[in-house]
Amino acid sequence: MAVDTSRSVNPAAGAKSTRGRVRGTGDKPPGRIRSAFARHWYAWAMVAPVVLVIGLIIGLPLVRGVYLSLTDADEANVERTIGVNHIPATYQNVGLDNFRAILEDQVFWDRLSWTATWTVSCVAVTFVLGLGLAVLINRRFVGRAVYRSLLILPWAVPAFVSVFAWRLLYNEKNGILNKVLEGGGIDGVPWLNDPTMAKVSVIAVNIWLGVPFMLVALLGGLQSIPGELYEAAEMDGAGPWQRFRHITLPGLRSVSSTVVLLSTIWTFNMFAVIYLLTRGGPGDSTEILVTYAYRLSFVNSPRDFAGASAWGVLILIILMLFAVVYRRSLRKQGEVW
After folding, report:
1. Which whole number is the average pLDDT over 106-117?
2. Rounded to an integer, what distance in angstroms lies between the CA atom of residue 207 and that of residue 267?
């Protein structure tokens, strides 16, 4: 028996063509950014005020600094108002001349060398001391909470208060340190008046301020390592050093990589310790990059705004390069950051 299939086929074909026409004449699908905003609009709304504040506080000064670094702006040619007289700006764009002059000046390389020495010394000693104290405090003993509070105390005190206290300790005539040495029959040490001792002194103060941060961060990392690993290693006959080397250090790798990066950036730009303790002296022996940029912009006369901005941009570039190289080295070691 013959079957008529024309009625069933034609509607199907018509429906197919109709769907094709609807799809062809409909609106285009939203883009990736639009769809992401539609799905996460609440998160964007919460983040927007923070982004706005950061843009105003950091973004605008950064853009302004980069612009000034490409000019010859100083105290004599910037826009200013004296009484009722308004003097317009007369500085001009000089391109990369400021950067070329800085890189050709031996002063920059001397400051960079000392800044690198200061940063590496402070971060290395701070990490070792912080790790040692974290391992000790991670154990259970009587009065552990008291010791934790005392070790975190330098971090709780404002930095300028701590630096002024250390300045009194370092006083060559009436300081406590020299009084103790003189009581033992040893001549007083010119802590802040000798170039070498001044460098040692500022490094010691910055280490004292930085150890609590390392201690807290590494202690948190230690407490995240499962205790079963130590028990299994001890049952297998591993000694304390072997457990520390093969369990503690690998377990702290993610935390230590982060704190080392943060500590490096903070120490590289540690203005308060250097300026409040020695003001870059004696002479310019303890001057680091950031304090020298401050001196150009606020201390020297006429104030060199363009030169200080160029120094600031170079500091930013150096730290960005360090962060990129550091991140790549971590990736090669299998760390995801």
Report:
1. 95
2. 10
Question: pLDDT by residue (tens digit) across 306-328?
Answer: 999 999 999 999 999 999 998 88
The pair of three-digit structure tokens given for residue 289, joined into one six-digit string: 């990059």
Tell me the residue type at 288. I
- What whole-number distance in Å separates Cα of residue 184 and Cα of residue 104? 49
pLDDT band at 332 (very low <50, low <70, confident <90, very high): confident
What's the predicted TM-score (pTM) here?
A: 0.82
Q: Distance between CA atoms of 162 and 32, rounded to whole angstroms? A: 51
Distance CA 188, CA 172 (A): 7
- Which residues lie below 8 Å from residue 121, measured CB to CB, with a gap of 6+? 203
Which residues lie across from 81 on neighbouring strands? 86
Q: How far is CA 56 from CA 22, 62, 63, 221, 308, in A?
A: 48, 10, 11, 35, 21
Average pLDDT of the residues in 33-46: 79
Q: Please report, for residues 118, 242, 329, the alpha-carbon distance to residue 124 in angstroms, rounded to integers and kept in the order given.
A: 10, 22, 18
Q: Which amino acid is at 206?
A: N
The answer to whether the beta carbons of residues 118 and 277 sit under 8 Å apart is: no
